[in-house]
Amino acid sequence: MATSETTNLEYAEFLNTVAAMDDPHGLYSPMMETHFWGGISRNGERGSFRYAPKPGYADLPVTFVSWYSAARYANWMHYGRPLKPAGLGVTEGNASNGAYDTATWVRNRDAQYWLPNCAEWRQAAFFDPAENKQRRYVTGHELPTSGIGPWSVNYFDGRWAAPFPHLIPAKDSGTARSASGTLGQAGNVLEWVEDLVGGQRMALGDRCCCLLRRSNRNMWIRNILM
C-alpha cells in the first residue's frame, strides 16, 4: 500500500487525463467542489473538462471518492498512468489485465497497485517489526495526544487539532506515522479497503475513529464518502 493518502493534486491529474472528454464512471463528484472537505473543482463542459485543486487544498487528501473510483485509480496506476481517456488499459480491467477486473471487482494476481484488504491495512497500521508484535495504537502503545506532530492525532476529545478544513497534508511528515512508515492511518480521512461487510464496502481510519483500538476498527459505510 502507499505510504500516504492520495492528494487532491494527484487525483486532479488523474481526472485531467482520463475524464477530460467525459466522465462515464463518475470519477468526479460535485461534492469535491461544494463541500468544505472536498478539494477539487471542475470547469468547462463535456469534451473539455478541466480539474484543479481548490486554493489551499492541493496537498490535502482527496475526499468523496467512491470505492469503484479508487479501484479505477489503482488500475490507472497499474498501467503506468497512461495519457488516454477512460477505458480498457487505462481505468478498466478484465481477468488478465489491470489491477482489478472491473466486471467482477476482483483483484488480479499480478496487480502492481491495489486497495489493501483489512488484514493488509491492519498490518501496515499496527505491526511493529522492531518488536515483532502489534502496537496498541498506530503511533505506539501510549495514548496519542491532540495536535499536529509525529505522535499525534488530528481529532481528539471532541475538538480539532488541525485548522479548517480540519485535514492535514497527506504527505506531511508530522502526520501520525506507523512503525511501517505509513502516514495518516490514525486520522485524516477514511481509507477504502477491499473487504465487504454485509455486502457493503469497508473503510478504515478517519479523524473521528482514530483512537479506536485495532480490534474495533471494522467500521463500514454504505455511501460514497472519502
UniProtKB/TrEMBL annotation:
The UniProt entry, under InterPro entries, shows: CTDL_fold, SUMF_dom, SUMF_sf
Q: Which Pfam families match?
A: FGE-sulfatase
Q: Which Gene3D superfamilies match?
A: paralog of FGE (formylglycine-generating enzyme) (3.90.1580.10)
User: Which SUPFAM superfamilies does its entry note?
Assistant: C-type lectin-like
Sulfatase-modifying factor enzyme-like domain boundaries = 2-197
Q: What is this protein called?
A: Sulfatase-modifying factor enzyme-like domain-containing protein
Which species does the entry assign this protein to?
Answer: Agrobacterium deltaense Zutra 3/1
Question: Which lineage do the record's taxonomy fields give for this organism?
Answer: Bacteria, Pseudomonadati, Pseudomonadota, Alphaproteobacteria, Hyphomicrobiales
